[in-house]
Amino acid sequence: MRKITIQEFVELWNDNELVRTPEVAKVNLDGSFLRQFTTKRIKRGWLSLSQLGKPAILLGMYKAKMVVPPQADNYQRLRQQWTFMSGDIFEDVFLGMYKACGGSVKWRQKEVEFMGVKGHIDAVVDEDHLIDCKALSSYGFDKFVSRPHDDMYYQSQLQLYYQALKEHGIRQASWVVLNKGSARLELVEMEPDYFYEDRAEYILKA
Fold first, then answer.
1. What SS3 state is found at 136?
2. What are the distances in angstroms from CA 101 to CA 7, 18, 129, 186, 202?
3. Low-confidence winner among 169-173, 180-184, 199-203 (lowest mean pLDDT)
4. Which helix (H) or strand (E) segment is 84 a member of?
5. What is the rounded CA–CA span in Å between residue 70 and residue 172?
6. Which of 9, 21, 35 is nearest to 122 (CA)?
7. What residues contact 82, with CB distance under 8 A and at least 6 apart?
8. 111-114 vs 129-136, strand pairing mode
9. I need a surface site. Which of 12, 107, 141, 146 has the fewest CB within 10 A?
10. Are 122 and 162 within 8 A, CB to CB?
11. Which pLDDT belongs to residue 57?
């Protein structure tokens, strides 16, 4: 089986050509369930890299313990688990199928660190391409693909992951975005922007 690139795989996905590849039947989704429903969640303190895009004043209040991050009740927690699990399933399906089709995948859920704050990336593909998988509604998909905004802190998260991994040979970063309504995929390239690094440094040094 020849090696394919992430862009070629996205095109095969959208053309529904992957049904012709028997290897995709070997994709294992056990991790998607285990991560949300059976694995003990590790407390990360007041902050993780995925949260650094939140308003600075709110993060400062969390840090100073002036306010406590809201705690979900059992029903809210179940909804959160199902929401996160749907994202985990997409991540496992996408990366599992890509690997089964000959794609290069490494550093799944690798822990990275920026100024002492930790986070976990989704994966690196094609040796030097950092990716973050997102499963969005049709409205969210169209909005994000047309302009990769930071409303849900996706920009901050990937920008900081990228900064944390540049010294390890990572040359580019992208979001792999799924439209949950149509099953269409888009590979959205991230443009490095030092605003997010500077903002994070300002918050962490405050």
1. strand
2. 13, 9, 17, 18, 43
3. 199-203
4. helix 74-100
5. 35
6. 35
7. 36
8. unpaired
9. 146
10. no
11. 46
